[in-house]
Structures are given as C-alpha cells and as structure tokens.
Write a structure and sequence with these properties.
This protein has eleven helices and 23 strands. The chain has 471 residues and is α+β, with helices and mostly antiparallel strands. Pfam families: GMC_oxred_C.
C-alpha cells in the first residue's frame, strides 16, 4: 500500500517545525519530500542569489535567510503569543487567532524548550512576557534527529519555478530547477508552502488559479515601525512598578514588554534595551546573531572587562542580565494596522535561478507618525511616575527607518473567512484543496508581538485537524 505523500516547499523556520512535528506524530507513515533553495549553509538573500528590491525597506535583504533552518539560524528566537489584549474591537478572525494561540501555546513552548515553561502574566495587565530560546536551540532544523533526516527525500539547492494543477484546482505537481539548471517535477498528495512570507507571496503570484487574483494577495503589508524614544540614566529598569530586567531560567531568557494602546485602536509595545553603548555587549550580540551593522575595535573590548566581569557574575549567581550602570533605553514598536498602502510585488529583476524577484513597497504613514507621538506621551508619563531621569532621543522618524532585529512582515497573505483572504481558516490557499501555507504574513498585523511563535500554534491546530491522511 502506498503511503500518503507530503511535499514541504521550504525548510526554514516554519518548514523545520512542521517537518519535525510530522515525523514525531506520524513517522514512516508519510512519504515526505523537502524542497529547499539552500543547503546546510545559512545565507542572506544576497548570498543566496535571490533577487529582492526595495527603495524603502531593508526587510527583503536583512530579514531573510535561506538554507536549512532559514531565519531561525539568525533570529533572536523570541517566542510570544497573541492574547485578548491584542484584540481591541470584537473581530471574528482576530478572535480565532487568539483562540488558537491560547489553545496551543503551552504545547509550542514544550516543543521548543523541551520542558514545561509558561509565560505567566503575573505582574500587570499592561506587561507582556516573552521567552528567548537558548542560543543552541534557536535553529529549528538542528532539532531533527539523524533518523528523521534520513527518512526524508531532500532536494537541496533547488527552486520551485511553477505549479501544475488538476481540474479540481488541486496542485498535481510542482516544477523545480536546481542551481545547476536541471529541471524536473515533484508530485505529492499534499503540499506545504513554507518558504517564508516574501518568497511564498512571490510563488503564489505564479499560481494563477482564477481565485487568488480576486484576493488581497500582496496587499496590506505591515511591519513594526521601531524608534528609540528615551535614554534612562542611573536607575533600574522599572515601569509600572515592574522590574523589566531580563532574567534567565535555564538557558532561556525571559523578557518583558510594556503594552501601549493608542486611541486609533493600535496595539503597540515598548521594551528595555540594555547595554546599547557597551562595546563588549555589542560583540556578544554580533557573535550570536551575525547581522548587526557597525564595528567594534579591540581597544573598546579591552575597556569593557569590568562590564564582562559584572555580566558574568549576575548571570551565574543572580540569573539576571546585567544592566551596566543602570543605563538603558526604551524602544517603541508600533503596529501599522490591518490595512496599509504597502505591498509585496513581483519585480522585473531575475535571480541566479532565472526567476523573477520581489519588490517591497513600504513606508511610514502619517497615521504611523501620529501613533508614535501619542505612544511617546504615554510612555513619558510612565517614566515620570517612576521618577526616572532620562534624555529624549526621538524627535522625528526618517521615512525609511528600521532598527535592527525588528523585521516582522505581516498582512499580505492574510488568513480569514472572507473571500478576499488569500488563506482560509483551514490554512489552505484559497481555491486550492491540497496546498497549505504557514508564515507570519497570515496575520493581519503584528500587534504587540514578534509573531513567529504565534504561527507555530496554527501548525499545531492543522496537525490536530488534518491527520491522519490517506493517499
């Protein structure tokens, strides 16, 4: 008897998580093929030869990584979830997302951390907790065991170039091309598009099934707009009476963020950035994430030995992150809302595979600026109430400004029950009964979180519903 066949297109963050869960739950009962544009080496889009263009956003260059594990090999690994505080107005689709996050968040944390940990919201309803995966746990591909890897058919250094559909609209096969130019096809009973938000949008634009063209595919791109507001001097990072100093539990770092709701209905957040001007800390971040810009001289590192000693002492004995001289800054991240004028388009430029690339149209709107101004006033009141001494850093935002590690593209492959949503509530691409999609672009906005962890909850719900499958 033939086993049901599954094809995963893209083995980055979501593809790796999905593959591991399929192997854990169903083992050899499924015939699994994985198509990955890269290989074991993690590469940026430029290094991978993937064409991306934007005059206004760096997300297409600095927010994308290719290879097994994808962006999870470079991300900070912070896990947060949507909850009721992210839904200002009663909205069926947002309520659905929150329900799935509440249902599966503990399971996701268990899978990622290997033990039971909960993000308890104890201190204040205005404070949301997050957890960072340990340094050696963040690359999700590396969680696959040797036996699981050997049981999968791997097609590396291979790009999907098109789809062939049947009369009922289902995908019969995908066309592929290797970096050497060899072309072939892959057939399967079920396909998963997990190539990342931007690349998935590009591929869906190639799939003209008469239905996707009537959806909002590529429209309403959103991201967090990030600005540094205040530099606080010589006082602990306490807001609303809550200590925001990051703490370690095991190898995982627990952090807090302050929720900031504005009158236009947006849900934003502020968080503490410690040790921004300490050279040794900058070196540590560069070693961990490999993508921060700027340079640090050897003499600066030598001058930071005192910091390193205090950092190590607090880490070992107090399980807390050392905030040097109690100096820290506050960064604000605002959501851009469910509806924007931003877009993801197919460009005329081609990549090393001969495929058209991506053009990102992104900007900071007048409403974004108004949201920043209102949120700044609220946060200033919090600082004053705590008696903090601070310098104001922010006066205006450059139209194209983005801070490091803040790329959370959402909205342009949104999931919803209406017919203009490119993905339905069963996570199927609209009009295609055997093509599922998972990425952060399914969420209409990022709200108060880095949305990667929230997407794992959608995968868990799908696995509960859609299996076992028959060929």
């Amino acid at each position: 008897m033939n086993r049901p066949s599954v094809c995963i297109i893209g083995c980055g963050t979501y593809g790796s998580y999905l593959l591991r869960q399929l192997r854990q739950r169903h083992g050899d009962k499924l015939d699994i093929t994985v198509i990955e544009v890269g290989n074991e080496t993690t590469q940026s889009s430029e290094e991978a030869g993937i064409a991306t263009v934007s005059d206004t956003s760096k997300v297409s260059r600095f927010g994308r990584y290719f290879g097994l594990g994808g962006t999870s090999a470079r991300w900070g690994g912070q896990i947060l979830f949507f909850d009721e505080r992210d839904v200002v107005n009663d909205d069926p689709d947002w309520n659905y997302v929150v329900d799935l996050n509440n249902r599966h968040r503990d399971r996701v944390l268990g899978e990622l951390l290997g033990q039971k940990k909960k993000l308890r919201e104890k201190e204040d309803s205005r404070v949301k907790n997050g957890i960072w995966l340990g340094y050696f746990k963040r690359n999700l591909f590396k969680r696959l065991g040797k036996k699981d890897k050997e049981a999968v058919r791997w097609l590396k250094d291979t790009r999907v170039t098109g789809f062939t559909t049947a009369n009922d609209g289902s995908v019969r096969e995908v066309r592929i091309r290797t970096v050497a130019g060899e072309e072939s096809v892959v057939q399967a009973d079920r396909f998963y598009l997990t190539t990342g938000a931007l690349e998935s949008c590009r591929l869906l634009n190639k799939l003209d099934n008469g239905t996707l063209g009537q959806t909002d595919l590529g429209k309403n791109l959103g991201d967090h707009v990030s600005v540094e507001l205040f530099q606080v001097k010589s006082s602990p990072p306490v807001l609303h009476g809550v200590d925001f100093t990051p703490q370690f539990i095991g190898t995982s770092l627990f952090t807090k963020r302050l929720l900031v709701h504005t009158e236009n209905g947006r849900v934003n957040f502020a968080h503490v950035v410690p040790n921004k001007d300490v050279a040794a800390f900058t070196v540590l971040k560069k070693a961990m994430f490999g993508r921060q810009e700027g340079s640090t001289s050897f003499s600066e590192v030598v001058q930071s030995f005192k910091f390193l000693a205090l950092f190590g002492t607090k880490l070992v004995f107090m399980r807390k992150l050392h905030v040097h001289q109690n100096d820290w800054s506050l960064q604000l991240d605002i959501e851009q809302g469910d509806v924007t004028d931003n877009e993801v388009l197919v460009s005329e430029e081609t990549d090393k595979f001969g495929e058209p690339g991506i053009r990102v149209k992104w900007a900071v709107s007048a409403n974004d600026r108004a949201t920043i101004a209102e949120a700044k006033k609220q946060i200033k009141q919090v600082l004053d109430a705590e008696g903090h001494t601070y310098d104001e850093l922010f006066t205006d935002i450059h139209e194209y400004e983005k801070l490091e590690d803040t790329y959370h593209p959402v909205g342009f492959i949104r999931m919803g029950q209406d017919q203009r949503a490119p993905v339905d509530r069963d996570f199927l691409v609209r009009g295609i009964p055997n093509l599922y999609h998972f990425s952060t672009a399914m969420f209409r906005s990022a709200k108060s979180i880095n949305p990667t962890g929230a997407g794992f909850c959608l995968i868990e719900e799908h696995l509960d519903r859609a299996y076992p499958m028959t060929s």
